[in-house]
Amino acid sequence: MAVGDVTMPQMHVVKGVKIGSTEAYVRYQNRRDLVIFEFAEGSNVAGVFTQNAFCAAPVHVSKAHLQLANPRYLVINTGNANAGTGKIGMANAEATCAKLAELAGVSKTEILPFSTGVIGEQLPLARLLTGLQPALNTLKDDAWLDAATGIMTTDTLPKGASEQFELDGITYTMTGISKGAGMIRPNMATMLGYVATDVPISRELVQQLLKTTVNVSFNRITIDGDTSTNDSCIFVATGQAGGTEITSVDDARYTVVLDVLTRVMKRLAQLIVRDGEGATKFMTVAVEGGADTQECCDIAYSIAHSPLVKTAFFASDPNWGRILAAIGYAGVTNLDVEKIQVWLDDVQICKDGGAAADYTEEAGARVMSQAEITIRVDLGRGQAKDTVYTCDLSYDYVKINADYRS
Amino acid sequence: MAVGDVTMPQMHVVKGVKIGSTEAYVRYQNRRDLVIFEFAEGSNVAGVFTQNAFCAAPVHVSKAHLQLANPRYLVINTGNANAGTGKIGMANAEATCAKLAELAGVSKTEILPFSTGVIGEQLPLARLLTGLQPALNTLKDDAWLDAATGIMTTDTLPKGASEQFELDGITYTMTGISKGAGMIRPNMATMLGYVATDVPISRELVQQLLKTTVNVSFNRITIDGDTSTNDSCIFVATGQAGGTEITSVDDARYTVVLDVLTRVMKRLAQLIVRDGEGATKFMTVAVEGGADTQECCDIAYSIAHSPLVKTAFFASDPNWGRILAAIGYAGVTNLDVEKIQVWLDDVQICKDGGAAADYTEEAGARVMSQAEITIRVDLGRGQAKDTVYTCDLSYDYVKINADYRS
């Protein structure tokens, strides 16, 4: 069961984006499992992809195509990750693009393929190709919920975020979807994110906006520390709502777009954690007072990855010894433990590296009973800070990952 | 329940080592919780300690004392880790040494203190000091089992290893004990190891032997990736069985001692994994064909730490996709995935980076049904290799760590 507010908002239409989907029977019956995005000509598209050395065939193809052209179509299947599939997998990803290019009348390199699902099995290519025309037939602008549902694997709910905002008298929209509930699912792979806006933005700035916001959202979440073979996030600016193109970070509108995109990306990333496998608590790990951002990030991840911290939160046990130990083994040099403060929300549990004198079990228990908790750490050695989002480790995590066999 | 053969062997007496123990009521009633080692004058002692920045007070004191003198006594309590206890904790560790020094008639710096148990509470110093004389009163050479039992926290069984061997017509003994079952226990801390031999060895070589063997034993195990505040391992050579002192690695006897110590240390380390929290399987992760040892170690730990790999083994699911993904995110650069082979014991599950063509579910299921499994990975890019030992991740791990509240 997902943690906290995970409702789909009203998914505003983005001008210049159409979405089609169908049941292609990739793995399961009676479910939407093939989604196509169509972007208006002139759209600028950026992508970021998994760092895993075993990245999937569609990731290789998408990265190559992105270098060559501005994509007009995305084609996404669920049920099969097309990862660990060798040369046949590459050929299948290319064949999917080629067929869609033929049907849509564009170049093959203007198509990016994405797959999520079981690793190590070949795509059922014939069924996938057969599904392309039916999916194209359903293209419409008001289908973001269909897309969010169509890319789910074992997610318990579709994930979306959407905002409208005004710049120089024009109303623009930023809408996105994501999927994922473990860094890797049982056999199922991973995190996908697609965000679109109708603001006109240069391709260079689209890339910069994506990189900047991924680093505070999708690159700051962890469920089990496992990085998938298929992680991908795409941001597109269609420019179809009018206005002049943003081509400089000094343009006042850039800051507004950055703010909106940051909120949308954080929401999409946090929804993945809220729907984390077996999650019963949503934890924000905020580390401040660091000498630099990297050490704050390292310590935040050390806490967020610790199975002992995660089980303590599942048990509602305000076990500060485990948090201190995780800080201590993060590999940060010359840490002065006597300067370290730790809070759970507003309750200080650790003062100057030891138990806080005025801490009471009652105060700790009050915070730990909540479904959402912030662990705040002050390192007392600088001004840098960073934040990571995670969930607890429950029986159900083991159950989901041990029992699952598709 | 521990995995595989975990029986205590016959614990041979080490000449020059006496062991005393008592019930000091540190935390629990009716259990031996205070252990003292006495080493003959002239013994050479080496120690290695946790890298955690939050290391416990006794670790600070032991490291300092080791610099100043060759220890004559070790004093070990269980039930309280004396970690996260600030200046009072340091004073308590020093006071324990001072009192034992007075009773035993040696210098305070000739004593090393060790604590394991709950983090963040002060030692019950009066009870501990009261227990010192009763423990001294029981000193005898044939008490290794008492020591192994006396240092347990939530270990389900005492852990020991012992060998006898002959060098130049003299029979020598190597005997050791260890404790630990998670890298950190719930609140309880961690891994301790004490190994003694009556071979005469120079202090410099005692240190070198310890460092070399720790790197293939205690530094190559993981249960949950959490590094404790109190990890310590001590090796002592009393020289009391006679013969000339080994002062050079070129002495033929050095190699024999290194071999024996390696076996004893590996056994003591592996016993900790076999008794891992909730463990149902013992896994050896052997990575070969690497460009250097570090990358083999990194990949072995990446596999051994992966919650998805560990739950798959708990479920007896030969899920090679999870193993490949863990190899892929280990951070090793320029990995050619098409050169990677993976075996479970003698069954090849992954060939040239993809599913092995002749792999069958039956063959995989046969290996996965075993309690002990070797995951062997060949990176196909060099001659280096390294091995890490771990266990699976079960419901009971979560249960032990979530439910535990001392």
UniProtKB/TrEMBL annotation, chains A, B:
Subunit structure: Heterotetramer of two alpha and two beta chains.
Catalysis performed (reactions): N(2)-acetyl-L-ornithine + L-glutamate = N-acetyl-L-glutamate + L-ornithine; L-glutamate + acetyl-CoA = N-acetyl-L-glutamate + CoA + H(+)
Pathway: Amino-acid biosynthesis; L-arginine biosynthesis; L-ornithine and N-acetyl-L-glutamate from L-glutamate and N(2)-acetyl-L-ornithine (cyclic): step 1/1; Amino-acid biosynthesis; L-arginine biosynthesis; N(2)-acetyl-L-ornithine from L-glutamate: step 1/4
Alphabetically ordered keywords of this record: Acyltransferase, Amino-acid biosynthesis, Arginine biosynthesis, Autocatalytic cleavage, Cytoplasm, Multifunctional enzyme, Transferase
Protein name: Arginine biosynthesis bifunctional protein ArgJ
Known EC number: 2.3.1.35, 2.3.1.1
Protein family membership: Belongs to the ArgJ family.
Subcellular location: Cytoplasm
A single BP term in Gene Ontology: ornithine biosynthetic process
Described purpose of this protein according to its UniProt entry: Catalyzes two activities which are involved in the cyclic version of arginine biosynthesis: the synthesis of N-acetylglutamate from glutamate and acetyl-CoA as the acetyl donor, and of ornithine by transacetylation between N(2)-acetylornithine and glutamate.
Binding of substrate, residues: T153, K179, T190, E277, N401, S406
A GO MF term: L-glutamate N-acetyltransferase activity
GO cellular component: cytoplasm
Entries under CDD domains matching the protein: OAT
Source organism of the structure: Acinetobacter bohemicus
Pfam families the record matches: ArgJ (PF01960)
Primary location recorded for the protein, binned into one broad class: cytoplasm
Site feature (Cleavage) residues: A189, T190
Active site residues of this protein: T190 (nucleophile)
Record-marked site positions (Involved in the stabilization of negative charge on the oxyanion by the formation of the oxyanion hole): T116, G117
Lineage: Bacteria, Pseudomonadati, Pseudomonadota, Gammaproteobacteria, Moraxellales
